Amino acid sequence: MNYILFDDPLVHGALLPLTFTRPISHIRLGIVTIAEKWLHFLQGGISYLTEDFLQKKYISVWDEDNLLINGSLCPDQNLVKAIGKLAHGESLQCGNVLIALRIPYTLKDSKDIIAAAGNTTVHPYTGTLTQVRQLSDIFLLNGSQIRADYAWLTEGRISREITDPHTIMYNPSHIFLEEGAKTKACILNAENGPIYIGKDADIQEGSIIRGPFAIGESSIVALGAKMRGEITIGPHCKIGGEVSNSILFGFSNKGHDGYLGNSILGEWCNLGADTNTSNLKNDYGIVKQWSYVENDFMDTGRQFVGLVMGDHSKAGINTMFNTGTVVGVSANIFGGNFPPKHVPSFTWGGAEGLDIYRLDRALDVAQRVLERKALQLTPEDREILTYVFYATHEK
């Protein structure tokens, strides 16, 4: 069977700026990305049907028997079983959500999905779906997805033993350390949810961690950090200060004091020392957040919404982000007072005003940042960032 994870174009737009640089299924939710969850459950290779400007990096592979699956859905055993029963020319749907379809031909892009599904025999799915449809779903679903991922990632395996006599554990049977993970003089409390510590991760002295919590390979929890639960730190990150119900996709840093709550940082982001996010309005009202689909601020229906930051964006020391702020890709924010609640991609500045961040300079900075991890900015990455720049500044 040939598996392809497809992006619903409307959902892809609703998840900008995070999906400026990735398909929906490459969003990290729980311990791993949605795509990695499907890899585990399907036990087979996958490719992607996404927006044209992403397709060169995230390729689609077609065969005579293609099972296309909605990449905004998180798998479980019941859903995978129902999808596996589809025959040629059949699709699976729950309400207005197209779950999957099985076809013997090639589609040009994700916009052809709906038409292709219209030519299939539809089977209803009556089970429960876990779907990312808007930005706030990512942190709202994160705790439950950490629990779900922890179950299959650790099943039948033995955690590396914690030998440090000064590390305090509560409910140690729900704490799992991969090879090379280190803890020293910290508190790990898994009474409210599991704690997963990835390969070569380092939990430094004085850290207090409450589950559900996950940290990826080679990431660091800095001295004295307070992790309040429902937190995912992706690989090669550094996290410090006080954090609650937030996700860092990977290769991003919030290494110093300051508060991050109900927030999402993409890859290659950096928050300067004492950067703080507001996640609750003073009047306890519903938070409005920038929508790239509506090109306006829209009600989220939520009281608690912090910062969403796209890949390669940075904030200088003492930056204050207002409730529900959205920062695009490759933005550079600095200065006093609150920056705007929407900072477009490839802009430079803050409360005093925003200027266009020149593409060549932004690409140079991205290259220098990747070189610190012995990586290179690929031609495909440059093309994606160039697309985002011109989509933002030439309208």
Mean pLDDT score? 97
**What is the helix tally?**
8
Number of strands: 39
- As residue ranges, the low-confidence spans are none
Can you characterise this structure?
The chain is α/β, with parallel strands linked by helices. The strands form nine sheets. Strands 12-15-18-21-24-27-32-35-37 form a nine-stranded parallel beta sheet. The chain starts with a strand and ends with a helix.
List the topology elements.
Layout: E1 2-6, H1 9-14, E2 28-29, E3 32-33, H2 34-42, E4 46-49, E5 66-70, E6 73-74, H3 77-84, E7 90-94, E8 97-103, H4 113-118, E9 121-124, E10 130-131, H5 135-140, H6 142-154, E11 168-170, E12 175-177, E13 182-183, E14 187-189, E15 195-197, E16 202-203, E17 208-210, E18 213-215, E19 220-221, E20 226-227, E21 231-233, E22 238-239, E23 242-244, E24 247-250, E25 253-254, E26 259-261, E27 264-267, E28 270-271, E29 276-277, E30 288-291, E31 296-299, E32 308-309, E33 314-315, E34 320-321, E35 326-327, E36 332-333, E37 342-343, E38 347-350, E39 353-356, H7 359-371, H8 379-393
Parallel strand pairs: 1-4, 1-5, 7-9, 11-14, 12-15, 13-16, 14-17, 15-18, 16-19, 17-20, 18-21, 19-22, 20-23, 21-24, 22-25, 23-26, 24-27, 27-32, 28-33, 29-34, 32-35, 33-36, 35-37, 36-38
Antiparallel strand pairs: 2-3, 5-8, 6-10, 7-8, 30-31, 38-39
